[in-house]
Amino acid sequence: MKMKIPLFFFLLSYFLSGRIFGQMVQVTEQYGTVELEGGEYRFHNNVWGASTPQYVTVSMDSTYFKIDSTKHNLPSNGAPASYPFILKGSHFNGTPTSVNNPFPLAVKSINSCPTTWEISGTNAPGIWDCAYDIWFVQGTSNKLEMMIWINYQGPQPAGSQVTTANINNSSWQVWWNNSSTLSYRITTKRDTCNIDLKLFMNDAVKRGYLDSTWALGGVEVGFEIWQNGTGLTSELFSVTATTITEVHDLIDKKPNSFGLGQNYPNPFNPTTFITYQLPANTFVTLKVYDELGRLVKTLVEDRQTAGTHSVAFNASNLSSGVYFYRLTAGNYVETKKLMLLK
Questions:
Q1: Phi and psi dihedrals of 152, rounded to 5?
Q2: Domain ranges of the chain
Q3: Taking a C-beta distance cutoff of 8 angstroms, is the pair 110, 90 a contact?
Q4: Any idea which fold 253-340 has?
Q5: Contact call for residues 187 and 181 (beta carbons, < 8 A)
Q6: How far apart are CA 121 and CA 111, in angstroms?
Q7: Range 20-245 has CATH code 3.90.226.10
């Protein structure tokens, strides 16, 4: 006879074996490092201006870490007292992570670089920021440091604010420091962030701060702490990268069936991409409708060859709201929903 496991105990066992309650270690020494997820990520505990090392609990089976205790005081040189962070790639042209590491990648070859970062920091005392720290290199030379601040308590980025930008459906202050540090500081703080770093690269190239021939050497997320910071927690971090070559390989591969993908990004502003698959040559229409069923845009109306196709939809002339896109290819019809947020 099979025994039924109560839901409570199933969930308890799941969390106890999950990313937070995996193999835990405590890192206290200056410049201490721990390999995470079998070497895919690495945790660094860098203590610079603090008189007493901070205590950080790290899960070796996930990308979780928490600042347990610290006695940091505001440094006199303006630099943070510490910088505990998680890395994929290499930090300042150092030793790279060893598993599933796509970096370095030339900026012009990157099609997308999606990331997810979940933190807990709103109630942490002190002076600190929670930021992506992204390094661009040319050979063995570091060319640009890009920081993307998603939460902060007190500090401002290095340099001065030069403009504002709307990226990934959020408003950002753009700061530039003459020592080659470009910072994007979000205007509405958040603890969960899903962003495509390629969008920030595109903006930096457009403004002349980033050369598309340089390579993305590594992506790290962590906390710059000037004072206190006890309780700051990185719950989850992931980063991947898709190159243009990989996208072309996908497009060149003949699919076995019709299919309509979910637009990306979604929500979007003002441009998103819609991908669909055709197993044979056929006449195709791809149209966008509003919530009342009124046609607002015809994206495709033509005979196309078998393969995977991608179409850009620019909605700069439309208002925020829910829209629907419908693919008709022979007898195949499918409709999906997308959301425009301005």
A1: -165, 155
A2: 20-245, 253-340
A3: no
A4: Immunoglobulin-like (2.60.40)
A5: no
A6: 31
A7: no
